[in-house]
Specification:
Distance between the termini: 170 Å
Helix content: 55-70%
GO biological process, one term: vesicle-mediated transport
Pfam family, one: TPR_28
Shape: elongated
InterPro entries: GBF1-like_TPR (IPR056604), Sec7_C_sf (IPR023394), Sec7_dom (IPR000904), Sec7_dom_sf (IPR035999)
Number of helices: 38
Strand order of the largest sheet: 1-2
GO molecular function: guanyl-nucleotide exchange factor activity
Keywords: Membrane, Transmembrane, Transmembrane helix
């Protein structure tokens, strides 16, 4: 070290001690560069260097958060990535590679869900659905092919798992999932809970949507079957013996896979979907409709049931999906050419929705208005659906009667009861005008029909209407028929007859037949009806009447009118309906079920299948055997209901009037005076009871007469004035006496004699009890002459001595 430094200090040497110190310092303490230092020395050095660099152009730099370009990168790469994953999944046989490709699909799904890329997720679902083999195989081979394909299992599980997890961003992909579900349904691979649906009529409360298997060679003879078997090859013969062990095992594997997929979660988890995704799912289900060229009734029914369940799962936000649901039901019910199982499921579905949704105030009004879809159906189809509707309405009223408040809603329900229970045709105002270019669904405003816009048909004429237009014989009430006018044979008396002298009445009595414009019937054209439907409707009415809370000012008159229509339908054991139904085909709900038939042609029209056109006659025979007992029970029930309403009417109306006065309600004022009670309650109820007094069945007739006598002599009716009692003779007693003059029951001559005697005695009692107020009437003479005329006719009506002896006795009591 010294030698190397000799003479370098300006030709001289350095101080030797200094060189020695430097040497030993270097030797003992190694020189380390700043970059190689650690601790504070290095930090200070690095910071000093950074400050120097920062002062130059190098000091300008950008800070970019992680993931800023992930979206753009994924948007550029997802297409090739999905294509590569699909190729690897399709071609690879290695289990590890297959699982890695599936993992790639799931990661792509997660990224697309994170960024809300619906088109990417739809593409993923569509790609995976192709690998399930559900859309490419025929139904016959599907269980075997799907069950024996492990890749198809993995793809199916992945599709359903991704749909459950990221369904919020699924849009167009719902169509592929629905198509896969339909394939599983056709191949009978879905769990039992998905193919069993609620039913009102079936004793178990459920029916299966899948058709029963029927042998294709059922119509062939035994010899022909044997010859065909002999001509088949060995392979074909083995195929006829049934599925092989391999096929059975494949189907078991397929069922196990579908069980793990848990397709029912699509329905139960739909309540967590975003609204837009939920609406797309509903659109996919609605698209499977009769408008499609490849229409299949079972497929439509299955999708309809899924749709109904999804709507019920989403009842918390049902207002957003109700319009689409209602339009679809309208389309199925109104546009169908003939009655079929799909129409039945639509009718049942509408009623199921109503039962579940009426508790929700925000939607209840729209749901009740939508029930008018049933009244817009063709009358023949409504009659075929009457059994289901009757049972459905009964369930609806039992569970939701307290939630129905509007008069229009009660009008809808009672009109439905009338149509399905007694065969009345729906109101023409609710029947859609059908044109060639009919667009289909109507809006709620189009469906709505306001009975108040026209006069409400109560089924009877008020006294004010009678006395105002009494002299206009040409302007008769709609309930009057020509037969009633011609055959009545007695005189109408009213207060406007004051100007006509009593002698004019005398002269007319002898010269022309006596005419009365009143009829005890409602005067509606009753078509054929189902006996069980009528019984269920009467049961529904009984439920409403028995509970005073359900009888309201909005439904009282409607309830009375409906009871009277049912009385007319059950008259004489429903003979009017039986006559009209003689040539018509009765509907058997049990046969309106899905039965397997060969799909020879995929293009099928929206019509009733042959199984639905040819109903089994077993239920008809059972019904015919029980008809007399059924109608007998119905008539007695209706009598009891009318008597109950008659005795409670005054109390009910008084409580309503008091409540209205207490609450200071400014709506239509409720009158509780005797005149209002007579018009709205007592008169129509007495007419209904009197209608059964001329029933051909003796027991019903006698029971009705007992109820009529009890009702006419009840204490509340003593408050009626002379005009109202005159109206009672004109509207109740005289029409009854006229009908009893007819040969109602030829086989029961003795019973008819007794009935006529009881009726004439009742007339005498009522006349004597209210003689004082009746004497004040200017038309009393005409009234008395009419009574005498009836007494004369009754004396000569019978063949025995019963009436000729009893009537003079009654007249003697009346005169004395």
């Amino acid at each position: 070290f010294r030698k190397n430094l000799k003479g370098v200090n300006g030709g001289k040497d350095f101080d030797q001690e200094m060189l020695e110190d430097i040497y030993y310092a270097i030797k003992n303490e190694e020189i380390v560069m700043p970059d190689e230092q650690t601790g504070l020395v290095k930090e200070n050095y690095v910071w000093s260097v950074l400050l120097h660099r920062g002062a130059t152009e190098e000091g300008v730099f950008l800070h970019v958060p992680s993931g800023s370009y992930d979206h753009d990168l994924f948007a550029m790469t997802w297409g090739p990535t999905v294509a590569a994953l699909s190729y690897v999944f399709d071609k690879s046989l290695d289990e590890t590679v297959i699982q890695k490709s599936i993992s790639g699909f799931r990661k792509c799904a997660m990224i697309s869900a994170h960024y809300g890329l619906s088109d990417v997720f739809d593409n993923l679902i569509i790609s995976l659905c192709k690998f399930t083999a559900l859309s490419s195989e025929s139904i016959e081979n599907l269980p075997t092919v799907f069950g024996s394909n492990p890749k198809a299992h993995i793809a199916a599980k992945t599709v359903f798992h991704l749909a459950y997890r990221h369904g919020d961003i699924l849009r167009e992909g719902w169509k592929n999932i629905v198509e896969a579900m339909l394939q599983l349904f056709r191949a009978e691979l879905l769990p039992k809970t998905m193919v069993e649906v609620e039913d009102f009529v079936d004793p178990n409360g459920k029916i299966c949507l899948q058709r029963e298997e029927t042998p294709s060679n059922r119509g062939e003879s035994t010899v022909l079957i044997f010859v065909n078997w002999l001509t088949l090859s060995g392979t074909e013969q083995s195929g006829m013996r049934g599925p092989s062990t391999e096929n059975q095992e494949a189907k078991r594997m397929a069922l196990e896979c579908i069980k793990q997929c848990d397709p029912e979660k699509l329905i139960t988890e739909s309540k967590f979907l975003q609204l837009e995704s939920l609406q797309e799912l509903m659109k996919a289900l609605i698209s499977v409709s009769p408008d499609e060229e490849t229409y299949d009734e079972e497929d439509c029914a299955f999708c309809l049931e899924m749709l109904l369940r999804i709507v019920l799962e989403n009842r918390d936000r049902v207002t957003f999906v109700w319009q689409a649901m209602r339009d679809h039901l309208y389309h199925l019910c109104i546009n169908a050419m003939e009655y079929c199982c799909l129409v039945e499921r639509a009718v049942v579905g509408l009623l199921r929705l109503a039962i579940r949704l009426l508790r929700r105030e925000e939607i209840s009004a729209q749901v009740l208005l939508s029930l008018r879809i049933l009244l817009m159906m063709k009358p023949s189809m409504l009659n075929r659906a009457s059994h289901q509707i009757a049972f459905g309405l009964h369930e609806l009223l039992k569970t939701n009667a307290a939630n129905i408040h509007s008069g229009e809603d009660w009008y809808t329900l009672f009109t439905l009861l009338e149509c399905i229970g007694s065969g009345v045709k729906p109101p023409p105002a609710l029947q859609p005008t059908r044109t060639e270019n009919d667009t289909g669904a109507q809006s709620d405003s189009e469906i709505s029909y306001h009975p108040n816009e026209t006069s409400l048909d109560r089924g009877y004429t008020s006294d004010s209407e009678v006395y105002a237009d009494h002299s206009k014989q040409a302007k008769l009430h709609r309930s009057v028929t020509d037969v009633d006018v011609v055959n009545s044979g007695w005189l109408v008396v009213g207060k406007d007859d004051i100007n006509h002298s009593t002698m004019a009445g005398f002269s007319r009595l002898g010269n022309s037949p006596l005419v009365n414009q009143y009829s005890l019937t409602v005067g509606m054209d009753l078509g054929p009806h189902n006996t069980k439907s009528l019984m269920k409707c009467v049961e529904s009415l009984s439920f409403i009447v028995r509970d005073a809370a359900h009888v309201t000012p909005e439904n009282f008159e409607l309830c009375v009118k409906t009871i009277r229509i049912f009385v007319e339908a059950s008259l004489n054991g429903g003979c009017k309906s039986q006559e009209k139904r003689g040539k018509n085909h009765k509907y058997d709900s049990k046969s309106a079920r899905f039965k397997k038939k060969a799909k020879e042609n995929s293009l099928r029209h929206f019509k009733t299948s042959s199984q639905h056109q040819h109903r089994s006659t077993s239920e008809d025979e059972d019904e015919d055997e029980s008809v007399p007992a059924s109608y007998h029970t119905v008539s007695l029930q209706l009598l009891d209901l009318m008597h109950t309403l008659h005795t409670r009417a005054a109390t009910i109306y008084s409580s309503w009037a008091e409540e209205q006065q207490h609450l200071e309600i400014t709506e239509k004022k409720i009158e509780a005076n005797s005149r209002a009670l007579w018009l709205n309650c007592w008169c129509p109820l007495l007419q209904g009871i009197a209608c059964l007094c001329y029933d051909a069945r003796r027991q019903v007739r006698m029971q009705a007469l007992t109820y009529l006598q009890r009702a006419l002599l009840v204490h509340d009716l003593q408050a009626l004035d002379a005009l109202e009692w005159e109206s009672c003779f004109n509207k109740v007693l005289f029409p009854l006496l006229t009908k009893l003059l007819e040969n109602i029951s030829p086989a029961d001559i003795g019973g008819m004699e007794e009935t006529r005697m009881r009726a004439s005695t009742l007339l005498s009692k009522v006349f004597l009890q209210h003689l004082s107020p009746l004497l004040s009437l200017p038309t009393f003479a005409a009234l008395w002459l009419t009574i005498l005329d009836f007494m004369d006719k009754y004396m000569h009506a019978g063949s025995s001595d019963l009436l000729p002896e009893a009537i003079p006795e009654s007249l003697k009591n009346m005169l004395l």
